[in-house]
Design a protein that fits this description.
Radius of gyration: 17 Å
Helix content: 40-55%
Largest sheet: 7 strands, antiparallel
Order of helices and strands: EEEHHHEEHHHEE
Oligomer: single chain
Strand content: 25-35%
């Protein structure tokens, strides 16, 4: 697991920084949305509506026909609908503290797509999230998936990272995480998902 720590910042997993100068790169398309977290928290269906919109919008970057070994438009749309819904629902579930904004960004390249969601949590929530990330990135994800599935069945619960594990195991998604302390009451949580446009 890759972990980088700087003052007030911790980075885990597969992370890419995109400076503003690259937004206008001819081979990288950048999209962005910023909403009040209350809009997701109070109207849960907006998570799925936003996910469907961005998955359909983004899939149009894929040509109508693609070469063998590359994901076609329908496959990309299907993966993204699941991925983005998972990311946005997590923002709705875990946003807390004085900073209640959710940001969505995507960078579309020739052979990969990168998606990033940003929300804010209170500092006391960071340790448990980092513990989950460490287990996710260091474990055998197939074994961890079935372990979590059994635990959920025994406890008649849901969650426990099954969405992340499914995205890693079934779709080859690579995740990166960045925590940035904004002030004593708020930590900014950035989650990146990297999707290769080549079939796994």
């Amino acid at each position: 697991m890759t972990v980088k720590t700087m003052e007030n910042t911790a980075v885990f997993g597969h992370w890419t920084d995109y400076p503003d100068s690259q937004f206008n790169h001819p081979n990288i398309f950048h999209n962005e949305m910023i909403v009040d977290a209350h809009q997701f928290i109070n109207y849960w269906r907006r998570c799925s509506l936003s996910s469907v919109f961005w998955s359909q919008y983004t899939a149009l970057f894929i040509p109508p026909t693609v070469a063998e070994g590359w994901l076609n438009r329908n496959a990309v749309e299907s993966v993204l609908a699941y991925l983005l819904n998972e990311l946005l629902e997590n923002c709705a579930k875990f946003s807390s503290g004085p900073e209640l904004k959710v940001a969505y960004q995507s960078w579309i390249g020739r052979d990969k797509m990168i998606f990033q969601v940003t929300n804010h949590v209170t500092p006391d929530q960071q340790a448990s999230f980092e513990s989950f990330i460490t287990e996710l990135l260091e474990s055998d994800t197939d074994e961890l998936y079935f372990q979590r599935l059994e635990e959920n069945l025994e406890n008649e619960s849901s969650g426990s990272g099954l969405g992340f594990l499914t995205l890693i195991n079934d779709y080859g998604i690579q995740f990166g995480f960045k925590f940035e302390t904004i002030n004593p009451d708020s930590v900014q949580v950035n989650v990146q998902a990297h999707l290769s446009l080549k079939e796994i």
